[in-house]
């Protein structure tokens, strides 16, 4: 299988975000950095784990943080952005001054499984 | 010895931003990319990162980057707090 390029994944995720009423972060450099991190995790572990969290290498254990993670919608709803700053609301993209650091929602115990 | 320690992930854009900002500010810091360490070392560092997050007021869930200077701990990327720290 030919690995997907970061640019292709950007296109796919843009469409996915729009289908959910969300957007990708309009800071292209940040967004591409996340996408490259996702693809690096896929290369290492065989699944597209969140690049902002420590991946265990065990797909089952990390199923909650396979991007898009199960915490994304709650974080976009509450903070305007997912934990990584990949998926965001339209308002978040338009208002840089209103952004806050998104706290980790994933329970710490999950890291040790 | 570095004044500031950064616990980071090599894949994480906010960790990269934190390291770049510290460099730009001329801070004396050392960074550890936890995901690149062997598993047993990762687990030891996770315990450390958890203890640091517990010391935050209010207490927070541990995450990356975690930045420590003396008694000051910052969990997550926060430009203002990093500038204050340096």
TrEMBL record, chain A:
InterPro entries: FTR_bsu (IPR004209), FTR_bsu_sf (IPR036644). It is an enzyme of class 1 (oxidoreductase). Its cofactor is [4Fe-4S] cluster. Signal peptide: none annotated. The keyword Disulfide bond applies. The keyword 4Fe-4S applies. It catalyses: [thioredoxin]-disulfide + 2 reduced [2Fe-2S]-[ferredoxin] + 2 H(+) = [thioredoxin]-dithiol + 2 oxidized [2Fe-2S]-[ferredoxin]. GO terms for molecular function: 4 iron, 4 sulfur cluster binding; metal ion binding; oxidoreductase activity, acting on iron-sulfur proteins as donors. Keywords: 4Fe-4S, Disulfide bond, Iron, Iron-sulfur, Metal-binding, Oxidoreductase. SUPFAM superfamilies: Ferredoxin thioredoxin reductase (FTR), catalytic beta chain. Pfam families: FeThRed_B. Its EC number is 1.8.7.2. Heterodimer of subunit A (variable subunit) and subunit B (catalytic subunit). Heterodimeric FTR forms a complex with ferredoxin and thioredoxin. Belongs to the ferredoxin thioredoxin reductase beta subunit family. Catalytic subunit of the ferredoxin-thioredoxin reductase (FTR), which catalyzes the two-electron reduction of thioredoxins by the electrons provided by reduced ferredoxin. This is ferredoxin:thioredoxin reductase. It comes from Thermodesulfobium narugense.
Automatic annotation (TrEMBL), chain B:
Residues 5-70 form the Glutaredoxin domain. PROSITE patterns: GLUTAREDOXIN_1, GLUTAREDOXIN_2. InterPro entries: GLR_AS, Glutaredoxin, Thioredoxin-like_sf. CDD domains: NrdH. Coiled coil: none annotated. This is Glutaredoxin family protein. It comes from Thermodesulfobium narugense.
């Amino acid at each position: 299988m030919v690995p997907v390029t970061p640019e292709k994944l950007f296109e796919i995720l843009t469409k996915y975000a729009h289908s959910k009423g969300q957007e990708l972060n309009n800071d292209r450099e940040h967004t591409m950095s996340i996408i490259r991190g996702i693809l690096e995790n896929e290369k290492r572990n065989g699944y597209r784990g969140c690049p902002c969290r420590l991946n265990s290498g065990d797909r089952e254990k990390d199923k909650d943080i396979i991007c898009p993670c199960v915490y994304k919608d709650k974080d976009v709803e509450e903070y305007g952005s997912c934990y990584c700053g990949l998926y965001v609301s339209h308002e978040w993209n338009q208002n840089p001054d209103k952004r806050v650091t998104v706290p980790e929602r994933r329970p710490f115990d999950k890291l040790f499984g | 010895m570095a004044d500031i320690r950064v616990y980071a992930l090599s894949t994480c854009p906010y960790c990269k931003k934190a390291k770049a900002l510290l460099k730009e500010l001329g801070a004396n810091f050392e960074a550890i990319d936890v995901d690149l360490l062997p598993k047993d070392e990762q687990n030891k560092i996770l315990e450390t990162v958890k203890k640091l997050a517990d010391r935050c007021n209010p207490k927070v869930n541990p995450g990356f980057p975690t930045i420590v200077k003396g008694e000051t701990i910052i969990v997550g990327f926060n430009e203002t707090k990093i500038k204050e720290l340096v």
